[in-house]
Design goal:
Length: about 375
C-alpha cells in the first residue's frame, strides 16, 4: 500500500519543518513537499501531485482560502485548513476544505505531538474521501445525479486495460494525419484524463489543441509535465504558435485559445478575455473556433469536468462534420461536461477513457 502524498503549506518555515518531522513518523503518510505561500504551493502541486494538502490561512501574496476557491474547482485536492484562529472555520469549510484544525497555542513538544496525531487523522480521512470531492458533489446536485465514490478505470489505476480493437466503434470518418486537427477539453479530473489520452497517442499524431481549466501559472508546468511523459511534443500556447503534426498546444491560464488559419496553415490565437461559459480559457471558445476554422476536418473530445463548458462548442463541431467523442460516466471523475454534450446530441460516440486514444487513432489513415 503506497503512502499518502502530503503537501504542507504554511508561511512559517519553523512550523512547516516541525510539523513535517512529526508527521513523517506516521508510516502511512509521506510529506512530499512544503511551501511557504500559495504560489510556491502551486508549483509543488504540479511537481509532486500530492493526494492531500494542509493549508494555512494567513499567508503572504495570497490568502489561503482565496487559493482554495481558485484551485479546487479546477484541480481538486482534499485540503485540511490549519489555522491559529477558529474564527474562519466556517469560511474555510465553505471554501471547500474537508476539515479545519486549530494550531496549538503553546507549541510545546507534547502539544505538537498531539497536534500531529490530529493532523494525521485528518489527512487519512481526507484521503479516503478524495473521490467524493466538493466540486463533484456540487456538480452532482446541479445535474440531478448523485455524487458517488467511484474509481474510474484508467484514471486512478496506473495500468491501462488492454483494448480489443474489434470493440472500437467504426463510425465511417477517416482523416489524414497531416490535415486533421484534434481538439480536447476538460475540467475537474482532466489533468489525469488528458495525460492518459495524450500519452497513448503516437509521436506523429495530428496537430492537437487542448483546453484544461487551470489557473494562470499552472498550465506552463502542466504542459512541461506532459512533454516529459508523452511521445508528442507538448507546450503551453503562445499567441501565433503554428500547428503541426506531433505537436500539442495547451491553452494558457486566463487566455482564450482559438484555432486560426491563413495561407500558411493553422495557428493559434492566445489572448486575455472575459470568461465564457464561466471560464478563461473556455472549451466552448476553442471548440467553436475549431468548428469555424477546420470544420469537418477535425476531431473533438470532451472529457471529465464540472458544468457544461464545451457542450455547445462540441455541438458546433458535430454539425460542421467533425468526429466527436465524449468520455462515459463510469470513467469520469465528474460526469458534467460530457453529460451535457451528450444530452444535446453533440457526441457521436461515448466511450471509456482508456479507449479514447484508440478511437482517435482508428479514425486516421
Amino acid at each position: 500500500m503506497r503512502k499518502i502524498k502530503l503537501l504542507v503549506v504554511d508561511d512559517s518555515l519553523l512550523f512547516r519543518e516541525v510539523l513535517s518531522r512529526y508527521i513523517r513518523q506516521d508510516q502511512e503518510i509521506d510529506v512530499v513537499g512544503t511551501a511557504g505561500d500559495p504560489y510556491n504551493a502551486r508549483d509543488m502541486i504540479l511537481k509532486f501531485e500530492p493526494d492531500v494538502m494542509t493549508l494555512d490561512i494567513e499567508m503572504p501574496r495570497m490568502d489561503g482560502l482565496e487559493f482554495l476557491k481558485k484551485l479546487l474547482p479546477q484541480y481538486y485536492i482534499p485540503s485540511v485548513v490549519v489555522s491559529s484562529s477558529s474564527v474562519r472555520k466556517k469560511e474555510a469549510l465553505d471554501s471547500g476544505a474537508v476539515d479545519f484544525i486549530q494550531k496549538p497555542l503553546a507549541r510545546t513538544t507534547a502539544e505538537m505531538k498531539e497536534f500531529a496525531v490530529e493532523i494525521c487523522r485528518a489527512v487519512k480521512s481526507a484521503y479516503k474521501k478524495r473521490r467524493i470531492s466538493a466540486p463533484a458533489a456540487h456538480a452532482g446536485k446541479e445535474a440531478g445525479i448523485s455524487a458517488v465514490s467511484v474509481e474510474p478505470v484508467g484514471v486512478i489505476h496506473n495500468e491501462i486495460p488492454r483494448v480489443d480493437r474489434s470493440e472500437i466503434p467504426q463510425m465511417g470518418n477517416k482523416f489524414r494525419k497531416s490535415d486533421v486537427v484534434l481538439a480536447l477539453g476538460a475540467s475537474t479530473g482532466g489533468t489525469e484524463a488528458l495525460e492518459k489520452v495524450i500519452r497513448e497517442l503516437p509521436a506523429d499524431s495530428p496537430a492537437t489543441v487542448v483546453v484544461q481549466h487551470m489557473p494562470a501559472g499552472f498550465t506552463k508546468m502542466y504542459s512541461d509535465r506532459l512533454n516529459r511523459s508523452c511521445k508528442m511534443e507538448v507546450k503551453e500556447a503562445e499567441d501565433g504558435d503554428r500547428l503541426r503534426r506531433g505537436l500539442v498546444i495547451v491553452g494558457a491560464g486566463e487566455h482564450h485559445l482559438r484555432l486560426c488559419r491563413d495561407a500558411r496553415g493553422y495557428y493559434v490565437s492566445s489572448k486575455h478575455g472575459e470568461k465564457v461559459s464561466g471560464h478563461c480559457p473556455s472549451v466552448d471558445v476553442l471548440f467553436s473556433s475549431v468548428a469555424e476554422t477546420a470544420g469537418g476536418n477535425s476531431i473533438g473530445v470532451i472529457l471529465t469536468g464540472m458544468g457544461r463548458d464545451g457542450a455547445d462548442g462540441l455541438l458546433k463541431m458535430h454539425k460542421a462534420g467533425a468526429f466527436t467523442i465524449g468520455q462515459d460516466k463510469e470513467t469520469c471523475v465528474v460526469y458534467g461536461m460530457p453529460m451535457e454534450a451528450f444530452k444535446i446530441g453533440a457526441v457521436k460516440v461515448q466511450a471509456p477513457l482508456y479507449k479514447i486514444a484508440d478511437i482517435i487513432q482508428d479514425q486516421l489513415i
